[in-house]
Amino acid sequence: MGSAPDFPRLPPSGISVIIVGCGFAGLTAAIECDRKGHSVILFDKAPELAPLGDIISFGQNSSRFFAKWPGVPEALDAIVHRSEVFHFHDWTGRFVTTQDFSEEHRRLGGRVNGHRGEIHQILLAHVRARGIEVNLGCKVVAYEEDETGAAVVLEDGRRFGADLVLAAEGVRSKGRELVLGVEDRPLPSGYAVFRTWFPADELRRNPTTRYLVEHGDSHNGWIGQDVHFLAAAIKGGSVMSWVCTHKDDAAIEESWQFPGRVEDVLKVLEGDWDPVVLELVKATPPDRLFDYKLVFRDPLPTFVSPRSRTVLIGDAAHPFLPTSIQGASQAMEDGVVMAACLDRAGKGNVREAVKVWENIRYDRVHRIQQTGITTREQWHKADWDAIWKNPESMHLQREDWILGFDAEEDAYARYDEIRESLPQEVPVA
Ligand SMILES: Cc1cc2nc3c(=O)[nH]c(=O)nc-3n(C[C@H](O)[C@H](O)[C@H](O)COP(=O)(O)OP(=O)(O)OC[C@H]3O[C@@H](n4cnc5c(N)ncnc54)[C@H](O)[C@@H]3O)c2cc1C
């Protein structure tokens, strides 16, 4: 399938890219490669990409990408969460502080918060509108490469080759075997999240929960000892999404997402938890509740295969804890920077582009990954005497070096300098 003509793109670069995985990493990489004139083809093992999930937040550092994709900002505008403030409470319901994001938005631009599945569908529709080939129901079972290119092998035996393969297949990445030379499994983080998203009609009828949904969108958090509970009313208060992060040491050998049980959530919230929270949980339709074990891993030594023709991006390279609020944003930055590096390098220098890309991405992504732990500890191990003296110490750290960053501009600005600094033995063909 050829590229659709009605989107601005650079002239054809002659570089072919295979992307495995249609999550936020894969879709962004595909759009950006298309923008830069590379030819791209996507594979995903899922037979369909259904609009599943709960609320997700894209910081200004990734929201800026949406603005470059014709039609996407308008589509997002129809579905995004509109609250500018976040109210913190302790677990019993005592109000602690309000974090107001309006100044941040004036300074750095807006963020995009909304239903994960709906935002994902908007990006997928944009990928298709660009004419990019999307192959669903295609599980990649093997990665291969030599000095001149890379290939993927599908479960049905078909083999596809390209100048570069991006393995964007999430935490259970098969591509990691080629990159690391050993089979590698994600580790439990010691935490899990109950997650849900459901129509708010019953909450509106209940006098205890009505205030959360009757004035449109709202955002509230309750912070307890090693547990936090976040609730967002979306779409004018017609839909409720909540997540509850708690300690969990279940094994994740085969799976890390299970149907959730209301009684299990209530067990986590035993004690003097706010009745508002308990009512929210009790109103949750059981078939809409998921128990998601959070996985983590120590930083990989590299994201790049031995011959620099296969690259891990997104969660395949660096799974994030939700408390960083940056996993999807960093997955998107990976794709944006790769497309720009390939543009700068040209077809004859794909492996050089990959090395420069890794150099640009590696430190930034790992520094930001750490913020997931910092925020979780800031909340879960809160010193409440100190918090009552300084309630704002509970606020999310919203740092300019993360949010005010333009990954595309930075990649173009630093490409030459980084290429010059690469060790001599790095191949340049
Ligand atoms: C509870 C929770 C809340 C979060 N909240 C936020 C937030 O607010 N903001 C934020 O930025 N991040 C958040 N994150 C993190 C974010 O969701 C992830 O970092 C991001 O979605 C990763 O995207 P990805 O494309 O790398 O991987 P995925 O979304 O996992 O996509 C991988 C794709 O690859 C496909 N695939 C897998 N194996 C194969 C194969 N062998 N062959 C073909 N296809 C394959 C899968 O079907 C899937 O479609 C949150 C995470 C969690 C768990």
Automatic annotation (TrEMBL):
Superkingdom in the source lineage: Eukaryota
Protein name per Swiss-Prot or TrEMBL: FAD-binding domain-containing protein
Any Pfam family: FAD_binding_3
Family: Belongs to the paxM FAD-dependent monooxygenase family.
Organism: Lasiosphaeris hirsuta
Ranges of residues in domain FAD-binding: 16-179
Transmembrane regions listed in the UniProt entry: none
GO molecular function: FAD binding; monooxygenase activity
Keyword entries, A-Z: FAD, Flavoprotein, Monooxygenase, Oxidoreductase
Gene3D superfamilies: FAD/NAD(P)-binding domain (3.50.50.60)
